[in-house]
Amino acid sequence: MIQCKHIDQIFLIPITIWTLVQSTFLTAQFTRAFITCLIGIRYIGLVLLVHGITYMISSYIFGLLARYIGRIGCFVSAAVFNYAMIVWMYFWEPNDQQIIVLYIISGVWGISDAIWQSQLIAAYTILYSDSDPTTVAKYRLWKSVGSLLTYSYASYITISLTLFILTIFLTVSMICYGFVEIHVRWKNRGKEQYIAID
């Protein structure tokens, strides 16, 4: 097993895997199950273009907002966006008159994807780069595991089961990240008390 110098790095593994599970879902399963089936393969590029544009803009915006709402606020926002789109896709009955919905889903998913990708690497570097030089390597490893997981099951299960798996995975990831925030704040409070006593 990979050594983690900090116990809370173990709790970051699910959310790190999640960042690529959700991204891979969009490129592998959303494009196949929704775009190709509904309007044809020729629209995949246009729909994903909306994802890219919202991703680019949101990375910048949430980079600025992180100062005011913190990492936890950013992650909760991303989770709310993902939950909303998962529920929408689960209950939505697509037809070819609702092409705009594909662009909306792709755009909102781009917003959440930007938050996950930019804020998680920031969390890793802020929390651990001074004490663990392998932090970014661990981050990349677990992201690769997320991609491997999603591509390995993507062709074999239905979209409704995939959406259920995404919901469970996101929930577990957010709970584990909550433990990380609690642990980091607890450690920092202990350091502040130690400094005050000295």
Automatic annotation (TrEMBL):
It is a multi-pass membrane protein. Keywords: Membrane, Transmembrane, Transmembrane helix. The keyword Transmembrane applies. One of its GO terms (biological process) is regulation of potassium ion transport. It is found in: Membrane. The chain crosses the membrane at residues 43-65, 72-92, 153-180. GO terms for molecular function: potassium channel regulator activity. PANTHER family: UNC-93 RELATED, UNC93-LIKE PROTEIN. Belongs to the unc-93 family. Pfam families: UNC-93. This is UNC93-like protein. One of its GO terms (cellular component) is striated muscle dense body.
